[in-house]
Amino acid sequence: MPRRLLIRIAIAVAILILLPPLFAGGLFLWMRAQQPQTAGNVALPGLDAPVEIIRDAHGVPHIFATNERDAYRALGYAHAQDRLWQMETMRRAGSGRLAELVGTRFGDFALRNDRMMRTLGVRRSAEAMLGTLSAQARDAFEAYAEGVNAYLDTRREALPIEFQLLRHTPEPWTPTDSLVWAKLMGLQLSANYRDELFRARVLEKLTPQQVDDLFPPDPPGSPVTLAAELRGLNLQQELRRTLAALPDLGFDTASNEWALTGARTTTGKPIVANDPHLGLDAPILWYLARIVTPQYSIAGATVPGVPLHVLGHNGKVAWGFTTTHSDTQDLFVEKIDPQDPTRYAGPEGPLPFENRAETIRIDGQPDETLTVRATRHGPVISDLEGGGATPSGHVLALSFPGLSDDDSSAEALYRLNHAENAEGVREALRLHVAPQQNVVYADRAGEVGLISPARVPIRRKGDGRVPVPGWTGEYDWTGFLPYYALPQAVNPPSGQFVNANNAIVGADYPYRIATEWPDPSRAKRIVEMLGTSRHSVDDVAHQQMDSVSLPARELLPELLKYPVPRGMATDAVALLKTWDGTMSRDRPEPLIFEAWLRELVRTVFADELGPDFASYWDLRPAALVRVLRDKPQWCDDVATSATETCGDAIAAALTDALTALEKRHGSTVARWRWGDEHRAALKHRMLGAVPLLGGMTDLSIETDGGFFTVNRGTTRIRDAAAPFAHVHGAGYRGVYDLADLDNSRFVIATGQSGNPLSRHWGDLVSMWRDGGSLRLSGDRGTLTTAGAEVLTLTPRNTGTNQ
C-alpha cells in the first residue's frame, strides 16, 4: 500500500477516534463557561431602586431591596438564573404541554400527564386562582414574573443545556405559570382517588373484611362496602382501564414536623422542626432564599417558579407543613343516558355533559385532540385513555375542592408569609383550600399552635373510600367543614405538637376527615425521643436524622418465632436477633430485613389479589402483624392444593430474599451493606438518560434510614431493578429557633444550581446526608467579608413610567 495512502488512512482514523472526545470536551468547556452572572452589575427594566443579590458560599441568595416588589423581581431573576429548566418543566407539566416539548422519546409519561392535566383543567383552575389574589399578592406574582422575564431578556450566557439539546426557547413567564405549581401540589398531596379505584376493584373478588385486613385501620374502623347501586355493574374493566391511564404524580406522603413550647426548650422559647418528604431528583424541588427589606424579611424554602416562601420564618413567626391525608376527593360513577349519550343521569333527570376540546401537541407526531367532559361532580377521568373513549354505560367523575374556581390557597400563603404573630397565621390559613395540611407554627412571643386548614367535604352518605353512585344524589357533598371545626389547638399542656402524617384527630372527633391514616411509626418515634425533657436546636436537628425503624422492632420478633432453613438463613437470622432496628447504611441487617419483608408481602397477598397485587405491593408491616397474630388464613397459597402455614410463608420469603441478595452481593451475609442498595436517587430526569452526561449529573449517595424512620428513606420495592433505592425523602430540612431566628437551620438535598457544571450543582449533598445545615442570616458586610458574591440589579430607564 502506498505510503501516502497509509498516512491518509491514519489521519482519517485519528480524526474518527479523536473528534468525538474533542467535541465532547469542547462542548463541556463551552457549557461550563455559560454560567449566570453572579457578581457585578446588571441593568433591569421595572426596578424602583437598586437591589443586591448576595450569594453566599453555597450559592444561597440573600436579597437586599428597598421594597418588596423589587425583592420579588430579584427572586424571579435568581430563580431563572439557577433553575430555569425546572421552572419550564413545572409549568409545562401543570399546563398539559410536556409532550409538546419532549414528545414520547422518554416513554409515554409526558403524553399521559398532558391528558390528565387537560382533563382536570389544571391551568384553567390556575387562571381562576389569579382572580382570587389581593392587590398586594398579585403585585408579588407580577413582579416575580417581571424578574424572570428580565433574566430571559438580558442574559448573556446560553440557555441551560436541556434547552440546547431540545433546541427550545422558553416563552415569557406569567403569574399563572407560578400558580400552576400550587395546583400540582394540591393534586399530588390529595390523590386518594387511586385508593378508591383500587378498593372498588378488589371488592369485586374479596370480602369487605378481607379488604379491611389489607388496610388495617388506625384507629379501628368498619369494613368498606360498595354501594348497592354499584354491585353487579361489572365495573372491573372500567376501573382497571382508568387506573392504568392515570399518570404517576409521585408519592403523596410524607413529612415530619414538631413544635416545642418554651417550657420544653433550653432557651425558654419555642422550636419548630419540619422536613417535607417528596420524590428525590437532581436538582431537588426546593431552593433556599432570603429576602430583606426595611419593613419585611423572610428566609427558608422556596420553589423555583413561585415567588413565595413555602416553608421557613419571617423574623416573627415560623411554620412547617405535613400532609393531613384527609379524604377530600371522591369518585362518582355517572350513568350515561341510554337514550342520549351526550347526557347523564341526575337525581331529577338527565343532564348534559359539559364538553370542551383540548389539542395536545406532541413533538414529532401529529396533534391529539382530547374531548374533555365534566359532570356536576367534576371532570370525567375515565376518558383519560385517549380520544375520549366512551365506556359502556358509565363514566367516572372526580370531585376535588382544589379544582374550584375560587381556590384562594395562594392568597393564604402570601398572608402566611406576612403574618405578624400566631393569630396572623390562623387568619391567613382561613383562606387555604387545598391540599389539607397540618401546619405547626410559633411566634416570638412564645405561642405555639397547630391547625389543619382546607375545605373538607361533608358527605350526605358514605365515607369516601370507594366510588359512589352519582345519579341518586344520596352521596353528594352538602358543604365543607367550617373553619372553627377543623383540627386545631394552641399551647398544648404536654409542651409539644408532633405530626408525621399520623392521625390528626382521635375517635372522639365529631367529623369524618379520613377513615384511614398512614403508619404512625415516625410520630411514635419522635414522641419517644422527645420524652419529657428540654431540647436545644442542636438536639432537634439531630432527632431529624434518627434512623430507628419501630416496625422492624415490632415485626421482627414475630418473624423470629418460626424456624428457618439451615445455611445462609441461619447466618442472617443470627444477625437479626441482635439488631436494634437502626437502618444504618454500613450494616447488613437493614438489607436483610427489608428484602425479607418485601418477599413476605408478596408471598402472603399476591395469590389472593392476582393482577391487582402490583398496585398493593409495598412494605406492609401492619398488615403482616395482623395476619401473623389474627388472620393466619392469608398465609395459605390459594393457588395450591396444600394448606400452607405462616411458618411456611416466612421461611419461603426469607429463602427467596437471600437468594436474590446472594446474586448481587455474594454469599457472605456479614459483608452485605444497606448502603450498597439504599442510595438516594439524586438524578437528573432528562440528562440522566443521555449518554456521557448521565454519569456526570448523577448525585446519588448512600443513605441511612428507611420507609418508617424519621430520617425518611422510602424505597419503591415493586421496582425489580432497584427495589431498595432511596427514591423519596426529606429534600429539605428546617429547624427554627424562636429565641434567635438567625440561629435557625436549613438544608436541601442537592445544591442551589440546576446546572450540572456549576459548583453549586451538588455541593450540599453530603451535608444533607450527614445532618449538616446552613444558617441564612447576616448583614451585607458580614456576608461579603465571608466571601459572598454581590450582583447589583440597577434600574434601567426604558422610557416608560415604571
From TrEMBL:
Q: Which residues are noted in the entry as Ca(2+)-binding? A: 196, 327, 330
A molecular function (GO) held by this record is: hydrolase activity, acting on carbon-nitrogen (but not peptide) bonds, in linear amides
The UniProt keywords, alphabetically, are:
Calcium, Hydrolase, Metal-binding, Zymogen
Q: Where are the transmembrane segments?
A: none
SUPFAM superfamilies on file: N-terminal nucleophile aminohydrolases (Ntn hydrolases)
InterPro entries membership: Ntn_hydrolases_N (IPR029055), Pen/GL7ACA/AHL_acylase (IPR014395), Penicillin_amidase_A-knob (IPR043147), Penicillin_amidase_dom1 (IPR023343), Penicillin_amidase_N_B-knob (IPR043146), S45 (IPR002692)
- Where does the record place a coiled coil? none
Cofactor details (free text): Binds 1 Ca(2+) ion per dimer.
> What is annotated as the active site?
255 (nucleophile)
Q: Which Pfam families match?
A: Penicil_amidase
User: Required co-factor?
Assistant: Ca(2+)
Q: Which GO terms describe its biological process?
A: antibiotic biosynthetic process
* Family to which this protein belongs: Belongs to the peptidase S45 family.
Q: What is the protein name stated in its UniProt record?
A: Penicillin acylase family protein
Q: Which organism is it from?
A: Azospirillum doebereinerae
